[in-house]
Design brief:
heterodimer, A: alpha+beta, 2 domains, 7-stranded antiparallel beta sheet, 47% helix, B: mainly alpha, Arc Repressor Mutant, subunit A, 0% strand
Chain lengths: 251, 181
């Protein structure tokens, strides 16, 4: 038996999953080109992954279970009507916990306004995942989502459709960062959501942390607008998303 | 009610555990096989997570939560479905022996058939996988964890994650990718 690290029948999975480092990836691509049966297996695996990502329904945790758990640990939420202030309190606690939880390391490494924005965006993303509806307008059509922002926000966001790249548009919502309402688009990757916020200020975001509380963060600046993508998809996938968005919005 | 626990604990629980309840419930459901048992498992796991929240390193909340949920789900299996756990070791040995001759045996699955599979068939095919294969596939292809995270959650070396994933996908593809009644 060969070691798993060398068995092409296992490596083809690692290749599809983006788990090979660049050198091994290139070497494996040569093997793929030379072995049609291996290339066919790669196509089958990709078809399987696609079908799992697109057809299996995404389920949220049952609301009754969430309430039971919150009650059990003393995060009581007595009435539905009180949910607004309690979400706000929860968001504050999320931000607080981000600071406590991540320790002093990146606080020392990264200081400045970018951190605050990133923290608030991660908190918004987390809060949206816990809400029964992570979006205010639900549509996969950019011509529905974009006009929805008109009148709600001064600068209409750039909305692109990335379904062909594997990131279908789910909808949009307004997040409040500091005191500024911000347009956030929501895309889906398999069972996971990606929040993309567009903030029209020119601050440098390069010092922002890449990970906050287990969520990956990617930011870039284009034409005076800061773009922030937040998600629990893996870092390479979030990078791929950012690349696809930039390509589509510049074209 | 959790007496003696601080507001810090509650805030950390809210930020570390609560965002991952959907993944937690999904993993528990795939392991136990049904929703209501999954709820019991997740609730038990969350209480455990809350008691241990002060010791959480802060690195990867989702992997930490899923590790605890998986443990609780296995405890549940041990009590309620012991047969599902008995053959794990035998199974991997048998798979290893079989794998060497497997290529020229059954018909090769077809990509087009795989791509056409509907949700119900996909779900039942995944449910038929033995637990170690099923959980590896779910963690990777449903929940999007990388190999390192799966190795941490399931407490096996990365090489084992790779072989389990390959077996799981191989069985799934054979099940949904070949014409059978």
């Amino acid at each position: 038996m060969s070691a798993p690290e060398q068995d092409p029948r296992l490596l083809v999975h690692a290749y599809v999953d983006g788990e090979l480092d660049p050198a091994h990836g290139l070497e494996f691509e040569r093997q793929l080109a030379a072995a049609p049966s291996l290339a066919a297996e790669r196509e089958r695996i990709e078809a399987l992954r696609r079908v799992i990502g697109e057809r299996l329904p995404r389920e949220s945790a049952p609301p009754a279970l969430v309430r039971r758990i919150e009650a059990a640990v003393g995060l009581a939420q007595p009435a539905r009507a009180a949910s607004r202030p309690s979400w706000r309190a929860l968001a504050a606690s999320v931000v607080l916990a981000c600071f406590i939880g991540s320790g002093g390391t990146w606080l020392a490494l990264h200081s400045g306004s970018a951190d605050t924005t990133a923290d608030l965006l991660v908190a918004s993303h987390v809060r949206s995942l816990m809400a029964s509806q992570p979006i205010d307008v639900a549509s996969s059509d950019s011509h529905t989502v974009k006009p929805w922002f008109n009148g709600r926000i001064t600068d209409a966001p750039r909305v692109v459709e990335l379904a062909d790249e594997g990131f279908p548009l789910v909808g949009g919502r307004i997040d409040v960062i500091g005191r500024t309402p911000v347009a956030t688009l929501v895309y889906r990757r398999r069972q996971h959501l990606i929040s993309l916020s567009e903030i029209p200020d020119g601050h440098d975001t390069s010092a922002a942390p890449r990970t906050i509380a287990g969520y990956n963060v990617v930011s870039w600046n284009e034409a005076g607008v800061n773009y922030w993508a937040v998600s629990d998809v893996s870092e390479p996938e979030l990078d791929a998303f950012a690349k696809a968005f930039r390509t589509a919005s510049s074209g | 009610m959790a007496s003696g626990s601080s507001d810090d604990d509650r805030a950390r629980f809210a930020s570390v555990v609560l965002p991952h309840l959907a993944d937690a419930h999904a993993l528990a459901r795939w392991i136990t096989g049904n929703r209501s048992d999954a709820e019991d498992v997740v609730q038990e796991a969350c209480l455990r997570a809350f008691r241990g929240i002060a010791g959480f390193s802060g690195a990867n909340g989702r992997a930490w939560v899923l590790t605890i949920v998986r443990h609780a789900a296995y405890t549940w299996l041990g009590k309620n479905r012991p047969a599902a756990l008995v053959m794990t070791d035998d199974l991997e040995a048998a798979e290893r022996n079989r794998a060497d001759g497997a290529c020229d045996g059954p018909p090769t699955p077809e990509t087009a058939l795989i791509a056409k599979t509907d949700a119900a068939r996909l779900e039942s095919a995944i449910a038929e996988l033995p637990v170690p294969f099923r959980e590896t596939l779910v963690l990777r292809d449903v929940q999007g964890l990388d190999y390192r995270e799966i190795a941490d959650v399931t407490k096996v070396p990365i090489g084992t994650v790779m072989s389990r994933l390959a077996r799981a996908r191989g069985r799934l593809m054979a099940s949904i990718g070949t014409d059978k009644p």
